[in-house]
Amino acid sequence: MTRTGWIVAVLGITSVLPGCTSTSNGSVAGGQSSTASTVATASRAASAPGSRFRDCPDCPEMVVVPPGEFAMGFDGGEPQRYEGPVRRVRIGYAFAVGRTEVTNAQYRRFVERSGHRTTDAGCEVPTPDRRALVALPGTSWADPGYGRPIRDDEPVACVRWSDAKAYVSWLSGVTGRRYRLLTEAEWEYAARAGTAGQHTWADEKDACRTANVFDRASARGGVSTTYAPADCDDGFATVAPVGSLAPNAFGLHDMIGNVWEWIEDCYEMPYSATPADGSAQLTRGCERRGSRGGGWRSVISRQTPTFRGRDPEALTSQIFGFRIARDL
Ligand SMILES: [Ca+2]
Hints:
single chain, binds calcium ion, paralog of FGE (formylglycine-generating enzyme), 16% strand, 2 domains, alpha+beta
């Protein structure tokens, strides 16, 4: 695991944020002025790596991620799931990434205010013998089949790719800012936060410091699967409230683990003419969309920055949610 110098440089940066954007401690910076000087100041502050902001009191908290270059992918992977070839990607712009996955409270607000219609097809959960997945009638984002009520601060789950797209479209409308899903390259860049190689940790025993995975806590809590738990203990048997574990070097929580995160790209394997500038691949393999990062019930070998989930847009799964990005 290696880190580049500029990542060290962004750590610990705090900022005063622009206009009526609220800061991470909940206060409101600036007044109502719209003078040119205020806007310029705002523009500089908003692009400082590590800055946190919200575009409204109820909006997801965002973190500014710096431009950079990285080696994307891994020269290996499961059969039929090659994660390479490793390719150089240069993201020449700063952008903002949700500090956490989108929460149940945030998603509920969207549904209530927009009137968005969600699916009633049932959410995919494991069968009792854990050997298959079925859409369980009556389950939905409001009841993902945990056997208990959801918490507001848990990541929303059981959302389709199209639900995630509807959310960012709605949020863009209410804030006047361009919210969107992360591209596959942006997601991997943000998840790596300067780390290189197949994993974001040097040793599996360290995975649970930053990632809620299928682990000893899961086994202790009665979650059974057909694979062995990770050799660590994150303290959460199932889904965890967002931000419960340590952030990565960009200040982002749960990039690995907790819930899988829908991304913008269509799934093409292996990478071929995939853009190398951070933009999305939207022309090939669009019968499936990408999902990244693993989840609380997933095998540890898939909890990497390079493993590439691929699923139909209409899939709803108990372990699938999303994270958002915003242009600066
Ligand atoms: Ca866990």
